[in-house]
Amino acid sequence: MTAATDWHDWHLPYDDDTSPLSRRLRLVQQHINDWLDRRSDSSLRVVSVCAGQGRDLIGALAPRPDADRVHAELIEYDPRNVAAARLGIAAVTLTGFTATEADAGDFTAYRTAAPADLVVLAGVLGNISDEDVRATVDALPRLCASNATVIWTRTRRDPDLTPAIRGWFAAAGFAEEAFHAPSDVLFSVGVHRFHGQPRAAPPSGRIFTFAV
What is the Cα–Cα distance from 204 to 162, expressed in whole angstroms? Predict the structure, then answer.
């Protein structure tokens, strides 16, 4: 981790409904809802990687009458964002949600979170090295339960890595369900379903390191 970006203030564009970040948030929330609509399980496990203030999961699940089916762990490094996430969880009484202060770039953080039925990777793949992006995708079978879904985001700023990322998902045992690349903004949102064999997560070990 570095101190180059204030990850608390990074959330400020969410206050503008027309900002690219708000538009991306709505797409991620839409896919979270679509995922839950497809799943009839009485209990589902979710992990949000570098969750920030948890606006995607909290915003998507708060209005739902079946939110109690979801047990979510929001893993976040910045203590101010963790505090904001905990306030958000308490405000809408999502009793199955936990905000954990930890480094999501290490397998240690996932001891109680994996294997997950949904992995949210919003705001992660654009803030780590290309090598770590591939390592993160390769690590997902160790975080995913059978038939899990991964929702991810990444900028398409030149050079655009998203074609390679989509190929890495395929190689790791995932089928693409959606890919959004709006022409007037640089963000993209992808959704992949895991059809491979889940693998046990090691007790520790580096997955990625934030580069900015």
Answer: 28
Pairing of strands 97-101, 187-194: unpaired
Neighbouring C-beta atoms of residue 101, cutoff 10 Å: 16
Burial of 16 (0-12, 13-18, 19+ CB in 10 A): exposed
- Cα separation, 14 vs 196, in Å, equals 35
H/E run at residue 85:
helix 79-91
Q: What is the largest CA-CA distance in the chain?
A: 43
Question: Quick one: pLDDT at residue 1?
Answer: 41
- State pLDDT tens for residues 69-100: 999 999 999 999 999 999 999 999 999 999 99
pLDDT for position 192: 98
Task: Give the residue from 46, 51, 47 showing the smallest Cα distance to 7.
Answer: 51
